[in-house]
């Protein structure tokens, strides 16, 4: 039920003004709030109505004298949701929309109207809307041409699928209303669920301010991570942002598009609808080359948003690609108090176990993808596979004739690769601990390796070679020219990222085997690892910094400082729930942990007695990571609560 509000000027009863309110509706200090009473009440009315408490909302309306919205706004909202476009068009002047946004609002309404007519195959009416309304209000020639091309699609289902639009009986009208609200003054039409949005903003700020926040049941993702692998849909309509010069979207429009119903007859003498559609088809095809040029010259990264609240160019508009990002749900956060995570229960700051089987420095550690095993590589020429549940040794892998510097589990944990200073790579069966293959093609120490999902793997060396192998030890491809210090491959196997001695991050397409980008660092890179999405690369530098690179934007976005590094290879990693933390070893024997987003140092963990060379976070347990040290030991770290309730050291 929607309230039928009285006008604000006549319904306000002066006798209802309390001593906590001034005549202008602003609460005074004795009420504990400095917000306008009218705004608070209207937000409460909106939320009560949305929650279904219509009787309570009506009572609040009567007692306060404030209405949720005017009759014109209520009719406009109802008209959009019911598709009564004549009513909608007639009410636009009553919404106090700024003059510069009128054309945008009218275009959005006409666009929905046009698409609905195409859905029911009323081509005559659709063409009329295209000519009389969309052409009149259009400021984006490319969008207009894309719309006109939809008339060539005879199957409405194909049309809807083509543009990601779910039709007039789906959510498109609701999404249109959300989009239109961005151009209507908020005091005229309050944005949907505004009170919830304000609460969500407050909770998000508290969550981001909590350096230890690592709640698994938060039903959201980082904003940047949510679009990691997304690419602009070339067939989608652009967002409502002008993508041409202002003088290019109106002058001479009919020279490019034949939209007029009174166009003279063609050579065939036909003047029917099919003839006009045929001409449009030919002219749209002629414009494709221009559209391609516009895409190349005016890509999304070069556009600036002209309208308030408009999505970034290249992303979905209101009615074409769905509702966008869903609302967040913070089930672990209560609204009754300010949020602060309990460090003891969620952060792994306590040593759970010390593994002491190696007889020399431990240079690398890696968890299996199942989290069941941990592998360690040592200067004592061996690698060891450990059982994470019992903290006991499963296999000691012998065969290298020099230090083992690096290791990596295959994605299915069936195999383990070990890289040695003896210039070899050994492939081990994890279950049996038996060597399955030995690769001897490298001429210098092998510094790193990485797996593809299909059991192929890549090795990198100081001999300026990277090789692609299968599990039989057969070489499949070679890259030359760079001394490789570390590498990682995306989970889908499509992208290889390598760090080299030239202070560069090199990115390769694993489908074409071509290098597609180089990123220049300032200092020598000693290690590299990718985020789970592969959008971000974490690199350790010899200059005592850890950098987080955005590989899509091609720039360093965070710098982490505080640890000690200068002489040795130090490895870092991302970890915690949603990779909220950055952890690194250090030459001063401590483990350093930073908050990933704020780049703030939050922990310096002691326990090792020599350089900490490598750290690795358990991919299946966000509250456990491992560290390897020159003191010949590996430490498994967990929460204080876990240590108090279970195992502490060496399984006791």
Instruction: Estimate the mean pLDDT confidence.
Output: 81
Indicate the low-confidence ranges by residue numbers. 1-30, 219-274, 280-327, 648-652
Q: Please identify the oligomeric state.
A: single chain
The gyration radius over C-alpha positions equals: 31 Å
What does this structure look like?
The strands form seven sheets. The chain has a four-stranded antiparallel sheet. Strands 2-3-4-5 form a four-stranded antiparallel sheet, with no helix packed on it. A four-stranded antiparallel sheet has the order 6-7-8-9, with no helix packed on it. Strand 24 and strand 25 (600-605) form a beta hairpin. The protein is built from 15 helices and 28 strands.
How would you summarize this macromolecular structure in one to three sentences?
By secondary structure, the chain is an alpha+beta fold. The protein starts with 7 loop residues before the first helix and ends in a 7-residue tail after the last helix. Mean pLDDT is 81; it is low at 1-30, 219-274, 280-327 and 648-652.
